[in-house]
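Proteins fold reproducibly. Take a sample protein:
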Amino acid sequence: MIKLVIPGRPISKSNFKLHNINGQAWMPSKGKYSKYIAYENMIAGYVNQQYFGEQIEENLITVLKLYFPNKKMGDLHNYPKSICDGLEKSGIIKNDKQLKPVMLFDFIDKENPRVEIELYPVSEYSIEYNIFKNNPINNSDKKTKNNK
């Protein structure tokens, strides 16, 4: 397992796209929108400070833990693209299509906003998917009492 930590508040890619007259999205390299490109480069820099192995060619089970300084986080689903693009830019992977499945979690940490990335090679790890319905204690007690 490879664990990487990117300090600072996560940045969403969708906030920085512009569209031309044909509706195609593009990312400007100058002005206020260049903040996204700087964020991608920052991710790549932190990855290269923490990972010294060979480029990974296989698929990776990916866990993204986003720690925000407050509840103002916007659309959570827009964050993985910027993080995955930064990973690809770092050279740790050939293509961000290798990152699958991706699990996304969000937390609040006022003192230490960051992104934690966990990468699990599929040749060594597998994943199980289970969702369980919560049963409140009061409801289960009532069923037990009624069934006696």
Summary: Strands lie at 2-7, 18-19, 25-26, 60-68, 99-108, 114-121. The radius of gyration is 20 Å. The chain has a mean pLDDT of 86. The domain at 2-147 is CATH 3.30.1330.70 (60s Ribosomal Protein L30; Chain: A;).
